[in-house]
Amino acid sequence: MKDSFYDFVSYELEQTLPVNWQHIAEDKLPGAQPCEISHAFHAHIAGESKMVNILVLPLSIKLNADNEKQLLMLRDKLLSERVLLIVINEELQADYLADTGTFISERLLVHSPDFMWISCCLDKNNKMTFDGIHYEYLHRGLAKVWEGKLIYASPRKGLQQVNLEIMKGNCWKCGKEIKTITGLVFPDKQLTSWKNTTWKYYNGLLNLSQIMMDDTILIADFIEILRIKDPVVTPVSFRFNDADQESYFAASCPYCGETCDEFYVNDERTGLLHSMQSRIDGSLKYYSLKLNIDQYLIDRLYNGCEACVHTTDGGWITRTKVSFYQLDKKL
Ligand SMILES: [Zn+2]
């Protein structure tokens, strides 16, 4: 027998069906119980025709290695077809993820305009939230989706302008003053100058070690040009780590050649994030460059969160709160 949470979602959905929707027959829904799509339909969302798939995960579902694998495969299949996958799960408490919520957060969630995660929280009368503050009935939240009142304001995969970050500091080994390449940030708007407080970047810094092959070549070339004018900027290259027996992309001191250890870099950098002063006084400096970012890097960006005055969460937000983050539509 199906959990009543499925009925709840069906009922809420019936309150707010999108205009011109075309339902997919039940026997044609992808997946298999308990990892089956509950509703699938074509809909016009913000003027665009889109296939929507809804996956319902009640508290009662018992996840194990098999059905977790099924869910991941189902997600990958649907996202490869460029549908909008909406995962609706049931939580006991708004500020605490149970096992299913933890699985969604850590493994199923994809930071993409094709993926939306909605939690209905029992301690909030089964209401949901898009901003973590205001809770509303599920049918009202879904209506915002169909009406195009929500927008996905976060980095997405593809060719785009990102910011390379340079931090003034001292080499942990030789102590000389250097300008360390720390990694990439994804700004919420595009500007000609970054030495101001009018912009934020999404979620946090993507450290150099997380950046993959093609992008590393472009970054290294860009930095070599910077170093012609300013030789104290750290060169970057792949360095071998004895402890992990792996190579990874890293900056090194232009004086002594020692790798700029990410632990020290992040520690020093954290002290500069308490206010925007670091941008104004040049402790943190940013340069735009165009890179082809893949989904893997986007998801790495959301491992952890800096949560400071420099950052913004992004994700699905109401249009009134949209910053001016725009990908270059000419690309
Ligand atoms: Zn040094």
TrEMBL record:
Protein known as: Uncharacterized protein
Organism placement in taxonomy: Bacteria, Pseudomonadati, Bacteroidota, Sphingobacteriia, Sphingobacteriales
